[in-house]
Amino acid sequence: MQKDTAIQVEKLHKSYGKLTAVQDISFSVRKNEIFGIVGPNGAGKTTTIECLEGLRSPDKGLVRVLGLDPQKNRRSLHERIGVQLQESRIASQIKVWEVLDLYTALYSRTVDYKDLLEKLQLSQVRSRFYSRLSGGQKQRLFIALSLINDPEIVFFDELTTGLDPQARRVIWDLVREVNESGKTVVLTTHFMEEAERLCDRVLIMDHGRIITLDSPENLVKKLGAEHKIIFSIKGRVQIESFNELATVEKVSVFRDKVTISGKDQRLLADVVNHLIERRIPYYDLQTQQPNLDDVFISLTGKEIRK
Ligand SMILES: Nc1ncnc2c1ncn2[C@@H]1O[C@H](COP(=O)(O)OP(=O)(O)OP(=O)(O)O)[C@@H](O)[C@H]1O
Ligand SMILES: [Mg+2]
Hints:
By secondary structure, this protein is of the alpha/beta class. It has helices at residues 45-53, 74-80, 96-106, 113-119, 135-147, 165-180, 192-198, 216-223, 267-277, 292-300; strands at residues 5-16, 19-30, 34-38, 60-65, 81-84, 153-157, 184-188, 201-206, 209-214, 227-233, 250-254, 257-262, 282-288.
């Protein structure tokens, strides 16, 4: 295992009876990377992550996390990784600070959780019973618990499911901060925007197999999807001349809306220059760039199921 490798997976295979959840997948995660796993429901994300955390035993294949075998070295790995489970269950008649104290006692090295509560905006509910927390507060508590032992690698399974857009942004900032402090982050998400904004690399899986693995930028580039420039015009305007531009592949008009598409990054500059040169009156100009959603739909043939 190379020095800068945090996680190494080779031909990992896991079945539940007749159902094969993960089929011979291989990948590695670099130290200090934010690594995302995305895929439709049932793709095998949680199964994969749980094999890395030592919570599930693989049927076949090799898994090394910080150089350790999660099955054989579970105890020492437990001290060095943080785990936010997709479904965490905590007794309802226990207070927030009690859960934190309990988790603190499980590790030999811990951080002071006051800072975590502050950052996760949970300080005001520290004396509340777990059962009285909102879904989003519970989610943030699980994130706090996953960071309590100051782990080298932290696993977030469905990082922001159930959170409102504002809370999601708070978590994104926190994940970036966690990463900047030197930790490796492995996360699963159903939000392509989240994967695109946060992750250095994204692994797309479906039916237990890896479909692709690359940086969000490269995935979008490889897709070769179209950029679109959309603007409105008033009255009779000659727009055929746009076809003369080298970067333009298609011009279409619907009512007063013109859509110009092409794959070249210079399309926007060309179109705007042309509008100015020809003195074409336009308004409401917008651009549509291809994103990870387009990549996902193109590769899995489906919209991501939440
Ligand atoms: N304990 C289990 N026993 C039997 N089958 C299971 C078990 N856990 C998962 N599965 C099945 O294995 C497959 C992969 O499940 P997994 O939970 O890994 O998917 P996932 O990608 O995390 O899905 P989601 O997006 O819904 O969380 C699914 O078909 C699921 O029904
Ligand atoms: Mg899952």
